[in-house]
Amino acid sequence: MEGSISTMARQLILPETEDCQTYWQWLVDKTGFSDRKILADLFMMDFETMLKDDENREKDGLLLRKTYANEVGKGRNSIEKDRIWKSIHGKCSCLELILGVSNSLNDILNEENESMVPQFFGILMGNLGIFSGKSSRDCYEIIWKFMSREYNFDGKGGLFPLKFPKRDQRLVPIWYQMNYWMEEHSDQNGAFTL
């Protein structure tokens, strides 16, 4: 991975357009997280992957843009939806990645109709060690360690820390880490518990 903490921050990829501003608000609303400064920090960091399989999680994050365009473009023709979707460009941000993984957890674990995405987003942020009030510098360092896979063998400092890891989580793609974590947090009947 190239760069450093100081070069990780980027200019907001969204120009000052109505589509882009409503996309930002849509992301914020989906997280349920109250610290907009931290969300902005996460949004300004490109997600960089060290494992090829994690490119699929990056695609999940980018898929949020299409989901947004479809929601906002309801009742509009496909050309207008494509225009909205394409007006949001750039690499997947760390915010989009974490929210995309939160959506995956919701899709797999939530048997209710009401979204639990904000709860899963909060759990992942807590697993990373990012809480309201963290400084931008702390946020960058935490995310840098996460992306560089400089967290512990058991995944502590990453999205999915385990109590009983079977292998070094730094070498495991995010999707499989998530599955090990869900398995560890399931009871004997397969119900997810925290």
Major sheet attributes: none
Which radius of gyration do the C-alpha atoms yield? 17 Å
Measured distance between first and last alpha carbons: 33 Å
Fraction in helix? 40-55%
Shape: globular
Total beta strand runs: 0
- Mean model confidence by pLDDT: 85
Helix-strand makeup class: mainly alpha
Show unreliable segments. Answer: 2-15
Q: Estimate the strand proportion.
A: under 5%
Number of H/I helices: 9
SSE run: HHHHHHHHH
Could you characterize what this model shows?
This protein is mostly helical and 194 residues long. It is 54% helix and 0% strand. It has nine helices and no strands. It has helices at 5-8, 18-31, 36-43, 55-72, 78-86, 94-109, 117-128, 136-148, 174-184. Helix 3 crosses helix 8 and helix 6 packs across helix 7 (117-128).
Topology:
Elements: H1 5-8, H2 18-31, H3 36-43, H4 55-72, H5 78-86, H6 94-109, H7 117-128, H8 136-148, H9 174-184
Helix pairs in contact: 3-8, 4-5, 4-6, 6-7
Keywords:
54% helix, globular, disordered N terminus
Summarize the structure.
With 194 residues, the protein is mostly helical. The protein contains nine helices and no strands.
